[in-house]
Write a structure and sequence with these properties.
The chain is α/β, with parallel strands linked by helices and about 500 residues long. The chain has two domains: about 1-250 and about 455-480, Aldehyde Dehydrogenase, Chain A, domain 1, CATH 3.40.605; about 250-435, Aldehyde Dehydrogenase, Chain A, domain 2 (3-Layer(aba) Sandwich), CATH 3.40.309.10. Helix content is about 40%, strand content about 20%. It is built from 16 helices and 23 strands. Strands 15-16-17-14-13-19-20 form a seven-stranded mixed sheet, with helices on both faces. It has a six-stranded mixed sheet with strand order 10-9-8-11-12-22, with helices on both faces. α9 links the parallel β11 (about 220-225) and β12 (about 245). α2 crosses α7. The longest helix has 19 residues, at about 40-60. The model has no long low-confidence stretch (mean pLDDT about 95). The protein binds nicotinamide-adenine-dinucleotide. Nicotinamide-adenine-dinucleotide binds near residues 173, 209 and 411. Nicotinamide-adenine-dinucleotide binds near residues 150, 151, 205, 209 and 456.
Length: about 500
């Protein structure tokens, strides 16, 4: 069986802790590899390598740092099929979806090729007599990233690309469920010209995360995962004097106004609700049709579409979605669907017993559609993270708006309408970080920033866009007087008073 270790100081390193975790093929349920779970000593070795390499990398001019990313982007494109297959085999998503995962990460690598421009700072000539004032953006030193299973290529790249482009060294702790792609990305970064020690991958679980959060040489931590862990990582990192940005779970609503194009809305709900088997933090999990007639027409359109979803292993290139990531996820999602039925929601498409011939041990759940869900129900409050769409009927626009406004999470939201007034009002009033107008999954592109509000995000700087450059650098402001030899006596008032 394949043993997946760590990638430290530019080389593969076997795990020594004696602790491992199985890596499954979610389509078959077979264990295909075993991943090492790092000890404190293994994390410390990665930090030591990063610490030794970082000063020289920070002193490398930004054009040269950018060139590593030019090479890396070319390598990603050249290895796209290989990376997508590796990703799908451990995650379960379709190959096309895996390519999307890689490409959304690649786009952030393209963005940071602009680092010479992005890291330019401010200068004021003559801020006082013979005084100039300027600010520097210097790397934080060593950054760390802790990533979830659902985007094993994109999210590591969202973190390490800006961190490294800014002159930092980086420790990546990927999800233990699909660790192979992050290791392969680190190999490709070395091939692209990155010096050893600047990108280290340490596999592990809570113990490796705690070692990161308490290591005195790590200055900044980026986390993406579920809300309880995001909250824990944010608090622990802050208590240990680290800068942190932590992104959590979601429950994304899509409001469908009576004037919306319902074919367009139904198609959008299918892709956004069931793509990647609903295992996306920007998946739409709640549809809110406004008015009974809109709701009835929408359900009529959705039912046959959900029933005819094509579900298959990643080797089926016609599949719309694959299995869930683990048996545990499958059991949890089925349990939540049972709960919805018990709570009185109407399960109009029931995919709980879906079985795929030849893949009976795979972690599949068929597409499920609930109607008449209400805000008190657990299936409404909880992030299901599976192929389950809940329809909550709203009487009018204000009632529809109120639902995402009052929900605990605030990652993404969408409105489908032909009414510009309603769309504008919605975008302005909603208390959610990413808003789509006739766009179901409004994930901003690399040059804008990504992040939710409320319990979907802890910390104040988002991922990618210019926020990422701010997160991975520290500002230093220099006030300089030249020529230095101007004679003046001791001054006891503040200089700006003169
Ligand atoms: P998770 O919280 O279980 O794991 C995320 C990371 O935290 C992994 O690296 C894991 O090893 C580590 N971890 C797990 N338990 C820990 C603990 N007790 N202490 C410290 N570290 C721990 O999340 P997941 O199941 O891998 O990913 C799915 C979740 O991520 C969903 O809630 C989804 O919404 C969220 N997500 C959010 C975003 C976003 O940008 N807001 C993006 C993608 C995924």
């Amino acid at each position: 069986m394949t043993e997946i270790g760590h990638f430290i100081d530019g080389k593969h390193v076997a795990g020594t802790s004696g602790r491992t975790s199985p890596v499954y093929n979610p389509a078959t349920g077979e264990i295909q590899a075993s991943v090492s779970l790092a000890s404190d000593a293994e994390l410390a070795a990665a930090v030591a390598s990063a610490k030794a390499a970082q000063p020289k990398w920070a002193a490398t001019n930004p054009q040269r740092r950018a060139r590593v990313f030019i090479n890396f982007v070319n390598l990603l494109n050249a290895h796209m099929d290989e990376l997508a297959t590796l990703l799908s085999k451990e995650h379960g998503k379709t190959i096309e979806d895996a390519k999307g995962d890689i490409v959304r990460g690649l786009e952030v690598c393209e963005f940071v090729i602009g680092i010479p421009h992005l890291s330019k700072s401010e200068f004021t000539e003559g801020a006082g007599p013979n005084i100039d004032m300027y600010s520097l953006r210097q790397p934080v030193g060593i950054g760390a990233g802790i990533t979830p299973f659902n985007f094993p290529a994109m999210i590591p790249m969202w973190m390490f690309a800006p961190a490294i482009a800014c002159g930092n060294a980086f420790i990546l702790k990927p999800s233990e469920r699909d660790p192979s792609v992050p290791i392969r990305l680190a190999e490709l970064m070395i091939e692209a010209g990155l010096p050893a020690g600047i990108l280290n991958v340490v596999n592990g679980d809570k113990s490796a995360v705690d070692a990161i959060l308490t290591h005195p040489d790590i200055s900044a931590v980026s986390f993406v995962g579920s809300t309880p862990i995001a909250r824990y990582v944010y608090g622990t990192a802050a208590m240990n004097g680290k800068r942190a940005q932590c992104f959590g779970g979601a429950k994304n609503h899509m409001i469908i106004m009576p004037d919306a194009d319902l074919d367009q809305a139904a198609n959008a709900l299918m892709g956004a609700g069931y793509g990647s088997a609903g295992e996306r933090c920007m998946a739409i999990s709640v549809a809110v049709p406004v008015g009974e007639e809109t709701a009835n027409r929408l359900i009529e359109k959705l039912v046959p579409m959900v029933e005819s979803l094509r579900i298959g292993p990643y080797t089926d290139d016609k599949a719309d979605m694959g299995p869930l990531v683990t048996k545990e996820a499958q059991t949890r999602v089925r349990g939540l669907i049972d709960k919805g039925v018990e709570e009185g929601a109407k399960l109009v498409v029931d995919g709980r017993d879906f079985k795929l011939q030849g893949y009976e041990n795979g972690y599949f759940v068929g597409g499920c559609l609930f109607d008449h869900v209400t805000p008190e129900m657990d299936i409404y409050k909880t992030e299901i993270f599976g192929p389950v769409l809940s329809v909550v009927r709203a009487k009018n626009y204000e009632e529809a708006l109120d639902l995402p406004m009052k929900h605990e999470y605030g990652n993404g939201v969408a409105i489908f309408t032909r009414d510009g007034d309603a769309a504008r009002d919605f975008a302005s009033r909603i208390n959610i970080g990413m808003v789509g107008v006739n766009v179901p999954i409004p994930v901003p592109l690399a040059y804008h920033s990504f992040g939710g509000w409320k319990a979907s995000s802890f910390g104040d700087l988002n991922q990618h866009g210019t926020d990422s450059i701010r997160f991975w650098t520290r500002t230093k402001t220099v006030t300089a007087r030249w020529p230095s030899g101007i004679k003046s006596g001791a001054e006891f008032v503040m200089p700006t008073m003169r």
